[in-house]
Amino acid sequence: MQGSDKGHGKAQASMNGEELRIGIVQARFNDAITSRLAEACITELQELGVTDRHIRHVTVPGALEVPIALQAMADSEDYDALIALGCIIRGETYHFELVANESGAAVTRVGLDHSIPIANAILTVENEDQAWARAEEKGRDAARVAVEMANLMEELQ
């Protein structure tokens, strides 16, 4: 099909969340920041058409506990996409790297093992100022990623 870019152009992402069921797991460690992430995320989901009754929001102690809650949600097969929210701020020890690497890898593994999109908005920052500067935008981004990927997965299956 010369002259046509059918199959070669960028498809328009579907950002319609009206029929989607979304699970959110929020780490409570650095609670003020993660609560801001959650607030922005839920507001954006609502603006994209996801109804309150189709949003399940749970909290866990910290970033290392996020993946197991995501796994339980994925196991239920009740969700079209999941969202991981947390905030890991670098300290003076190696603990930052451990938590960031392990939580990130585990979130990815849950998504791949269950073939469910997971928007990972676990912030990894140098200091609290960086976290506050990113919290609202990353919360909104996570909502958009979850909706877009849920719709794409539906289209691909």
Describe the model:
With 157 residues, the protein is α/β, with parallel strands linked by helices. It has helices at residues 31-47, 66-76, 95-114, 128-156; strands spanning 22-27, 55-60, 81-89, 118-125. It has a 4-stranded parallel beta sheet with strand order 2-1-3-4, sandwiched between helices. The longest helix has 29 residues, at 128-156. The protein is globular and about 45 Å long. 41% of the residues are buried.
Task: Provide a concise account of the structure shown.
The chain has 157 residues and is of the alpha/beta class. Helix content is 49%, strand content 18%.
Topology:
Elements: E1 22-27, H1 31-47, E2 55-60, H2 66-76, E3 81-89, H3 95-114, E4 118-125, H4 128-156
Parallel strand pairs: 1-2, 1-3, 3-4
Helix content: 40-55%
* Overall morphology: globular
Poorly predicted sequence stretches spanning 5 or more consecutive residues: 1-9
Strand-and-helix sequence, N→C? EHEHEHEH
Q: What's the number of helices?
A: 4
Would you count the extended β strands for me? 4
What topology, given as strand order, has the largest sheet? 2-1-3-4
Structural class: alpha/beta
Radius of gyration: 16 Å
* Distance, first to last CA: 26 Å
Biggest sheet statistics: 4 strands, parallel
Classify the beta-strand content into a percent band: 15-25%
Mean pLDDT: 93
